[in-house]
Amino acid sequence: MDTTYQHLDASDADALADFLLHETWPFHGPTALDRDAIHRRVRDGFYNGDDSRTFWITEDGERVGLIRLFDLADVPRGGAPLFDLRIGRAHRGRGLGGRALAWLTRYLFTEFPGLRRIEGHTRQDNRAMRRAFRSGAYVKEAHHRDAWPGEEGRVHDAVGYAILRRDWLSGVTTPPDWHDE
Ligand SMILES: CC(C)(COP(=O)(O)OP(=O)(O)OC[C@H]1O[C@@H](n2cnc3c(N)ncnc32)[C@H](O)[C@@H]1OP(=O)(O)O)[C@@H](O)C(=O)NCCC(=O)NCCS
Predict the structure, then answer these.
(1) Distances (CA, A) of 82 to 49, 79, 103
(2) Which of 55, 85, 127, 178 has its CA 20 to 30 A from that of 48?
């Protein structure tokens, strides 16, 4: 299968709304987004602008996933970008998410030569994303209790991972210093 990562552009607003609204996103929590709101976000630069860039993940020409990179405007001031990675339900569990994580990591470290770290957060019970982080040399740095609102008023813990440029370059992951108190 041929996987590509293609810039989302303004003419993709309808396709984006189809993708976001027709799929299920069990770990993203309640959303009030509708088609109009997604169109508005596309127009307002939520997906592409100074602070963000968005890519379709395609497999043999079919759009199967989405990567949104954000907090990019902070990078020149030393900030770490974040991302939202989504694979369509029918395509999960086949390696696409792990490969997309490797792609976006390389993309960010290459596009921003001064970038030292990339961060990612997910819900504690998102096993696939957490395994992808670990396989991708991201290291768990944070555990936030009761931080991730879920469906029906439930609340979950959130976990934070990051990868350092120096680890990415060396292939050696360095853990945080947890014993500093
Ligand atoms: C999370 C997500 C991006 C992972 O992508 P994916 O293509 O499904 O995952 P992959 O096939 O690349 O597998 C990644 C790892 O998770 C494991 N995995 C896959 N599905 C799993 C599942 N349902 N339960 C537990 N582990 C799973 C794989 O074995 C692999 O482990 P390894 O790296 O140790 O070999 C994708 O499932 C998704 O988009 N889910 C919904 C949206 C979401 O939760 N996004 C993350 C928001 S922070």
Answers:
(1) 15, 10, 14
(2) 127
